[in-house]
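Researcher: Quick test of sequence recovery. Tokens follow.
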């Protein structure tokens, strides 16, 4: 038996070493919490994060990783986010600052603060282990005044939401969790509010001003990685509020980008009407993602509708119906998505437009584009090519867009003027700061 002792001793030492690499968590008090749904179901657990109760729209995400990116995505504003993955928080939260330069936009994650109203997890990790982590998920949530619940069956909640659709809910913490669930009229419906107006930048600002091509962005609640994907391709990006009339400055730019954002796109009809004029008068490239895609669709004459439970996760397959740049017709691309609304698939499609992508699971419209004979260069996709958590099957769409803008610039004889007021301000003054204490 003695001959096996050294091996056993090494195993014990390895075990203690691996445990020592994880951060030691402080004891967490078992504060009661409950997730109450408007449809009558209640799930009991314990609280972490901020000790406050909130209302919101209960949705689920099938993402296995990147909980920090999901929680800082402005498109989750007003929502109680249920993670289907059993354990959340095991790799902690990183320091969320980056330089403002040609490769970054001020933050590591998707915005300065947590954007969702609350989080629901099966098992929150009390210890975390990652070389870039500086705090736990619970500590991060508490610092940003966002409550969470753990110890509930998130698979059962997800099944329920898939059957009955996205449902209004309340996360009750502490003494509130011991009370009877709210009455139906007490639940807050965030879709009735213009969430884009709450989250969009209020000030025009510029990133990477020395870039070789000038791109304007309408900010409906832009993820930082969209901006990052543009500046890393040597674009100078000027960001405008969502309802800014781009037509007043359109000739000073080589392309227009419409970002993602939260809520019902019909609250943004003024932007769609402005864009309709832009598309009629302007021949330069236009690209939209998520909410931006829906705005392009409404400008083209399509309608937007509310899906039963939306698509949220990193594993949505889409089929390309047309060739365009790096996208090849007939290929299935795996994509990251976060949306509750979609464009209506109609026959015939508006003149000058064609479907670009279709969802392989539910046949919803995942993209539209201008036809080749329209003389326009316009694309819109419902998914996120830039997804920081992956997959990156369609990331080269950013390269396609920037290169098309550069080609148009090279072929044009117009001169650029300075945009006023093109004030360079830090990213924290934009939408992320607005929702950091939500």
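Model:
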């Amino acid at each position: 038996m003695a001959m096996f002792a050294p091996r056993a001793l090494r195993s014990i030492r390895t075990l203690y070493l691996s445990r020592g690499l994880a951060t030691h968590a402080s004891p967490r008090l078992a504060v009661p919490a409950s997730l109450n749904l408007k449809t009558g179901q209640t799930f009991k657990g314990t609280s972490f994060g901020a000790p406050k109760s909130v209302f919101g729209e209960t949705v689920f995400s099938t993402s296995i990783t990147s909980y920090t990116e999901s929680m800082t995505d402005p498109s989750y504003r007003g929502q109680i986010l249920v993670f289907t993955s059993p354990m959340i928080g095991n790799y902690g939260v990183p320091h969320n600052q980056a330089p403002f330069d040609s490769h970054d936009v001020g933050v590591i994650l998707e915005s300065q603060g947590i954007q969702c109203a609350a989080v629901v997890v099966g098992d929150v990790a009390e210890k975390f282990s990652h070389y870039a982590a500086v705090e736990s998920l619970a500590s991060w949530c508490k610092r940003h005044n966002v409550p969470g619940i753990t110890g509930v069956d998130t698979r059962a909640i997800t099944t329920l939401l898939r059957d009955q659709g996205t449902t209004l809910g309340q996360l009750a913490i502490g003494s509130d969790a011991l009370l009877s669930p709210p009455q139906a009229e007490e639940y807050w419906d965030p879709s009735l509010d213009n969430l884009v107006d709450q989250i969009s930048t209020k000030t025009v600002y510029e990133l990477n001003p020395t870039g070789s091509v000038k791109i304007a962005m309408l900010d409906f609640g832009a993820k930082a990685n969209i901006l990052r994907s543009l500046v890393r391709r040597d674009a100078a990006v000027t960001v405008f509020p969502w309802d800014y009339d781009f037509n007043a400055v359109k000739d000073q730019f080589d392309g227009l980008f419409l970002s993602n954002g939260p809520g019902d796109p019909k609250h943004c009809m003024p932007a769609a009407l402005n864009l309709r004029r832009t598309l009629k008068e302007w021949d330069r490239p236009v690209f939209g993602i998520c909410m931006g895609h829906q705005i392009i669709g409404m400008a083209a004459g399509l309608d937007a509708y509310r899906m039963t439970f939306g698509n949220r996760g990193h594993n949505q397959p889409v089929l390309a119906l047309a060739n365009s740049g790096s996208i090849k017709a007939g290929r299935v691309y795996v994509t990251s998505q976060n949306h509750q609304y979609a464009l209506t698939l109609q026959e015939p499609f508006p003149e000058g437009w064609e479907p670009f992508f279709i969802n392989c699971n539910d046949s919803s419209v995942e993209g539209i584009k201008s036809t080749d004979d329209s003389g326009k260069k316009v694309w819109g996709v419902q998914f996120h090519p830039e997804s920081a958590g992956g997959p990156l099957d369609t990331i080269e769409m950013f390269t396609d867009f920037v290169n098309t803008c550069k080609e148009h610039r090279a072929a044009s004889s117009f001169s650029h003027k300075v945009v006023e007021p093109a004030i360079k301000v830090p990213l924290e003054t934009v939408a992320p700061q607005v929702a950091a204490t939500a």
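The longest strand covers residues 304-320.
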